[in-house]
């Protein structure tokens, strides 16, 4: 596995320079584009790393999985009264469908859906951001995972599109807390800084029927764990979910920080990172690396 | 397995009466609603049946998989110049997205996408319907599979919505043959009559890396086979693809005749049938049967 | 008035070369771009002409007013059961709104609405095209008005977008005759060839409370005449109806042949012609000429 | 005229009870439904009143005309860089079109367009609300016109939909001031309390080529005045602009307080008031009263 990971990184490294680092906020635009990493955490507890796998980066939308898992933990199936688990077929931040469907987001991985999940968590936790940070620290087995407040503040300054989505949902009665407060929490989750190694460990329970081996905790039931994977498979990569299933064939979740997490159920979790994005907003080299991994080990879920 | 299938049918039988048989054409509305069947064909060549598994029914949209496989066989990746493989997030027959995306259908399992695939096949085969029928006979190992011309004619009489989609694509230059001729072929494919046993056998190659054990033919490469499964997983059940992934966790394809085919990669293909549909147009008892099967054998792809 | 018309044509003539002749069918693309004409027919029966005012051109969508008037004559208010009289806010040939509003077109001047009007007329007349031609001959006071069958055939060959609209409406039950037959009629109406002088005379009844002075016939009631003008004012110039009201301030109807008819209620009807179109598909020099006319005589309806 | 107004009110009074008073905020829901008024202000300076014509009510969207006129006064044609003057064909508060057209509202009378106009005015005036109030006092010739702060506050509490529109425009760079501050101004304008007599006087300049007879001020140029009327004619009554043109045939602007102002160019301005609204959100008895007025005096602009 170690040799395979090294080989894959060398094979995708030439893609660096062909994508574009997210630049909608300065704090993300600053990230050096030539960083590249992969980490695999197997169900028997081995961690394999290659490249800059210990360098922390901004997880961004990968945090939407953490929020969803927290919400499932405390509210279970009830959350589906507030949003769906169908692919949206629309850009991640579009309001068109949200208005036509009267403020009910299609799934928890488009921005509107993640905001509803944050609103649900906001109602539940006295200190939602601390609560999330501590949850992620336990999942990652790393007590030093931090929220980058510079990134969170900068995203809040550029909140207009997400604010529009939240107010639109509020206008349909599908938002219960103060919009500005939930936006603050939402951007704090997005601003979590974690390495590929952290994320591979943090997602291991989804490859292992909900059980997190390194911490010994059952995070979700086996059934819930499969359900989260199902939602990642149909909706985890924005507009490119179908293409990711077609090329890689694994449940996954990407972030504009350039990270992508994927799950091989029954075997391992994996995280790749390369800051440059393709036109759909997913890590260009990251998708290629996962495609090669899936090919070489002869494994997609399909 | 045999006992399990019997048990599942008994468990879902009470759902009969809670759905609605498709009635947009008389030939479908006539089907007795109390029929129920399941068939499993394993990768080691065993066929397990329960209920009315030898009764032929109208496969309808399940035929979209056959058309797609034929198109991949002769044109490979080239077909993606004409359509995508992303979930649509829209009803199966909507023209809204098709117009906004300038006549390029999202995937081969919405009607517009299947029409483009038929148009591709129409350009390739001198006798497209015979060609398809013979292909399906070989896949099913049943030389008596027929097209029900009464159903095909009746659907042609009610072609307005599909004609609109085809003409709209033609207006964008994404339709190459005579619209009426392709519609005739399309409705003939939909009007194939097959039993659950036929369909379980016909789909076995998708559970077996493209290899059809009973005929000894490699229908698709292993990679292509996974790709077809990926498209079924993200787009196979109309508006309910996400929910099917969430509840059942298997690649599948449904038809308004009440059939649903699903694939457990590496293990078996399965077909269920019950004519009554839910609000999304998928077999009500069929989805429940597959959900139970997935639960009992502890298997979803996730 | 004569001097004013001459002056206006000279003032707008430099615009020739800045627009684009319609080229979606060869028969329209052939028209020499440097033709320019204006004709005014006053309520006291005087005709004033300048430029190529006796040259016949393809009236195209201007015919939608004739169809509407015929339908009002025989069916009155009943036609509004089949379509609306609200601006669409969408391109003239879009199907998005038509699907969302279940096959009911917004108004009689978008293509879908004109097709419904043709369908209504098709049900009423044994020979709809002859009936229309004779009606227009009487309105224009010119027994030599003809349908250009080369243009009609060519448009039929390129019917895809309009066929899609008609089939979509049929799928919602809002189309009663054979689609192909109605399309043939529709394209024949569009292919009427008339001069500016013909059209100014033909529209005079709309400036005169429904009374056609030269033929002595009451074409519509005063109220109906105002209603047709109202629909032209809010929906007569495709996507540019608001801009036309803002700049010219008169009810009007344009065609892609480069003609625009406008009405000054109580005073006169006017037709301008210049084949080159602006981005919205309306005659570039034609709109400018009407703007100057409205300014110079100090008259808009507002 | 006086007799005619009395007669019209008696004729429409039976409609009271068939509509529905706006109830999205308590302050509006409280208004007694049985109030009814009409006022006409002629170009020769006569005021004719009937019913409760001196009772002040909440002008709501009628204020959008005042904002627009202020913006034209100081910025002229420049405002059209920020929004259009085309009918929208969509509900007054829809975000669908706004997103598809990248944050540029269709016209100044849908909410998004009025918010952009307020944003423009906010940049211009140190005290925008006072500035507007004083402008309206001069137009109405009534120094006691007030903003009802209870209504303004209540609307601000229910700002979600308008906040969504403003933030969406900000995300496209088409909003320059603080969203919350502009919303405060916007709701203050809507909360102006004026009577039918006030409003008839305040709109008289639009019937008189921009000249306000009672104050002796030229508010707009004749051309600008016609342009404002043109926009009212194509977009002044929400989704019902086409129907209002068809039935009444006059430029007009309505508000959910139940007022409608209309203009007979060259003759008079008129205001009707009845708090109960039809399904499109326009005063039910108000539209009927204007239809009768237009019929009886034989006058529509068409």
From TrEMBL, chains A, B, C, D:
Residues binding substrate, per UniProt: 61, 111, 155, 162, 186, 238, 256
Catalytic activity: L-glutamine + H2O = L-glutamate + NH4(+)
GO BP: glutamate biosynthetic process; L-glutamine catabolic process
Annotated Gene3D superfamilies: DD-peptidase/beta-lactamase superfamily (3.40.710.10)
EC number per UniProt: 3.5.1.2
MF terms (GO), sorted A to Z: glutaminase activity
Alphabetized UniProt keyword annotations: Acetylation, Hydrolase
Source domain of life: Bacteria
Signal sequence segment: none
Leading EC class: hydrolase
SUPFAM superfamilies: beta-lactamase/transpeptidase-like (SSF56601)
Acetylation recorded as keyword: yes
Protein family membership: Belongs to the glutaminase family.
Assembly and binders: Homotetramer.
Annotated protein name in UniProt: Glutaminase
